[in-house]
Amino acid sequence: MLEKGKITATQSGMILYPIIMSTAMIAGPSLMMKHAMQDMWITPIWASCSGFLALFIAKQLNQRYVNMTIIEQSQQIAGTFWGKGIGFFYVLLFLQINGFIVREYAEFIALFLNGTPLSIVSSALVLVSAFAVRGGVEVIARSAQIFFPFFVVPFLIMILLILKDLEPQNILPILDNGLLPTIRAAVIPQGWFSEVFLLSFLLPYMSDRTNAKKAGVVTILACLVTMIVSNLITLFVFGDVTMTLLFPIMDMARYISVADFFENLESGVMAVWVVGAFVKVTLFYYVTVLGTAQWLNLSNFRPIVLPVGWLTILFCFWGIPDFSTVGEINSFAIPFLLMIFFVFIPGSLLLLSTLTEKRNRTKGVDTG
Amino acid sequence: MKVKCLWISICCLLVAGCWDRTEVNDLAIITAASVDKAKNEEITLSVQIFLPRALGGGAGGAGGTGGGQGKLTTMRNSNGPNIADAISKLQAKIPRQIFWGHCKVYIFGEEIAKQGLADHIDFLVRHPEPRNRAYLYISKGEGLDTLDITPSLERSTAESLREYADLHIGMAVTLVDFRNMLRGESEAAAIPIIENGKKLQKPEDIQVKAVMVGTAILKRDKMIGSLTLHETRGLLWLRNEMNKAAISVQLNGVEGIVSVNPIRTKTKLIPHLENGKWSMLVHVDTEGDVVENGTRLNLMKPELLALVQNAVRADIEARMRMTLKVLQQELQTDVVNFAAAFHREYPKEWEKAKGQWEKIFPQIEIHTQINVNIRRPGLISVPAGVPQEEIKNDE
């Protein structure tokens, strides 16, 4: 096996939570509000369905093909030729998505550090992630565990500080335009939830695999609650204006003012976001590296860490000239890519493996 | 080992984030800014810049009270077609990098407010430096005159305006509030008006003149009229923003005035729509203390206290009705945001009516329900300074 580290189910939850939330926290509320308006707090509930589905598929596949990631599983299920083909697209997707995440992070940072070139901001993050990836899954899990409180606690503090400025009547009228818009708005966040499928790359290295399901469910529920809360709070502070804000949570932090001196907390949000982005980029990076190594049947994945990092930096610039393109990709390409690769393809593979298994079994009954 | 050292040094260089460092002594910290109309479709952007040297020099040099006399701020201005352009021209007049992060007050001249504020607000919310919680004001005359005044109590006019906003004497409108108002259902906004800075230059003027003089009423982003300070109080009651006030009432058939200080107030707008008839119930709950009793009534008697409560109730109602009359009949602008209340309660009907809201709003019938509770009489029971035998214990 390429990876000798061991992680626990709890650690995998601590990796997955920032992965889902770091994207959702940057633009989530405004993206969901575009369709759902003041009912956007309902949207995460629909979106989380894809998370549960992805979790179920990853767990089922892992039960059938223990100690294998989706790259190897696809070869087992669909045969070497088709399996290799699917694996290639997976690795390409990870590279593409990771490049996009790095770009999104860099754009956010560049808003404040506008003199720093984007390439420096993105390579600094990729470089730090490269160290973690070289350390393997155990290092990633432990760093996620250390960073977890830094990601969660500031958000809770922020909510406490903004409480006095909330205007809860902004939520009315509930379901003004019916349920349909809230479901339409779920298209984007369902993509984030489906990232739970990355568990496929963590399950083979989990020491207590029996708890994996519980950890996954708790993670999805935690993300669901956090998303509902952040949607509600931005709605209560900014009302309909939320839709026009590119970084609503950050704008909310900027609005905090307690006792005339506890204010201007946006740097806090930035720090939290750097932590979240680090975990997210590191896992996607790791998955790309591990997937490539498994696809090429390498005996060690460490030599390809830096080359993949270099590619990631390139992918963060290729085809993305400006922030409006980032927004377009974020709402039109990414959700569907994630849905196809994290729910649809693995789901079909699972179906295929169940069918072949059944056929083999009936055959067995026939002959014997 | 060598490789490790190399990695660590590369990391130190990249991750430390020194690329965008800014030294405080390279910054010109702006405390307030004003936008006024200039000739040829241009605007005048004026900024009040904090002078750190004045603060340090005062303490180190003369020491004590003498040092405080110097000005702590200075004013610069520049013209341009919009704020961003004016800033780049302004930068040529200031040796340090302009920094907006501490700007807590934005003042708009009366003329430019009548022309429309939307263009200028865009800069303030788009640029990452200006603060969401900065307060907006409209100045009578030109805003830049206010920036040049040296206040006696605070460091700068910016600081005093911010303190006024915190006191809630008039409206207090932040950048976020204004943005929310512009995109709200009623498409109306209100911004407090301050006195023309030219009239506040001399010390003797400052002694007698109030700074806050009322509220500007904007339809969309254009100023169309204003409320006096008296009418503003009514608006604060309606918008549930009232928190400090003294209500002085004269009781029927009783000599003298009683003043009541509301401690807690809550206003709720309850819309009602029946057979195409729009009406609004304004529900006010308030409780407060007696602060001055100029009558001969003993307010420890519940029935006499009830008299005062009734009078206060009538006074609050009169104030709100006076303001609503101006808003509904003269200005025809819904700054109380009745529109949002109707949207929340009657979403379907609102969908049909929102195009004609300007016609509907003036015809809305207003009902009021006001609960006044006077909890405490202060430190004394019977009126002070009146002989015991003259005190009335009943009507």
TrEMBL record, chain A:
It is a multi-pass membrane protein. It is found in: Membrane. The chain crosses the membrane at residues 12-32, 44-61, 81-102, 108-133, 145-163, 183-205, 217-250, 270-289, 301-320, 332-352. Its main location: membrane. The keyword Repeat does not apply. The keyword Transmembrane helix applies. One of its GO terms (cellular component) is membrane. One of its GO terms (biological process) is spore germination. Keywords: Germination, Membrane, Transmembrane, Transmembrane helix, Transport. It holds the Pfam family Spore_permease. Belongs to the amino acid-polyamine-organocation (APC) superfamily. Spore germination protein (SGP) (TC 2.A.3.9) family. This is Spore germination protein KB. It comes from Brevibacillus centrosporus.
